[in-house]
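Put briefly, the fold is written as integer tokens. The lines below illustrate.
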Amino acid sequence: KLIIVVALFLGGILGVATCFVKEALDRSIRQPKQLERITGVKVLASLPKLPAPGPLRNLLHRKRRKQDALIYDEGLRMLRYALTNPASRRPPKVVMLTGADWNVGCSVTAQGLAGVLSAIGQDVVIVESNFRHPKQAEIWGVENTDTTLNSYLTGDADLAQVFARHVEKRIWIVTAAQTAGNAADLLSGDRFRTLIEGLSAQFDTVILDAPPAMGVADTTILADVADAVIVVARSGRTRGDAVVLAIQLIGASGAPVAGTVLTDVEIGRKTLPLTTSQPSTVKQTAFVERLTDA
């Protein structure tokens, strides 16, 4: 019995020690204030992690999901306010969203930003600029046509043939086909800049859904046509040094970094809502309605 007691005691100590070691080695960002302290760049919004859809009969699950979705929507409004603040001399016309790493929620954040901008009467177009892993067509539930952004950039189609697809009230998207090898080459010519200039004249806001800043040449090329760049990080996954490096790479290209967004923040931590907010005067958007109906 003594041996069992000692074994349990030592096991408990080992378990606690393991937790402390893991915590010490974990350099991922978890809180907005932590992200601001490490990068020196303002966090424009923190977005909570939304629970997966559950059975319709599970009222408790649906209630929690609706509450979390409303907090998510409020975070998007804070992001919108940071970009459209009346105190700004010139709100950005072309906004680029890029991740400090892959799979940080950049494409979904672009979708949400378009939703809250359209809620205040803006006409918004999302340009799929991530040729390596395009997601906008899938997110909006549309199929790519034969004439995508790739067709125009390679010279196989003219500007009139590259049309923005209407996916929701006041929201359009320009889709792209997946390609990896020549993504930077496609964006380097004048045709992409001509496209963005044309869309800027037609829409209130152009959102570029870009690939991560690190290890991809595409992003610095895209940043050159953007009025503001937002770096997206994922709580519990993205390392602080990765965000710092992403901001440095974008800054080196001369593009203005407007701030960061932290996604997948756990509700319950002292992180939500972020202090920089605006009065919530906008009704529940179609974006949050889709989330709560899931």
Observations:
- Strands lie at 43-48, 94-99, 124-128, 165-168, 171-174, 205-209, 228-234, 257-265.
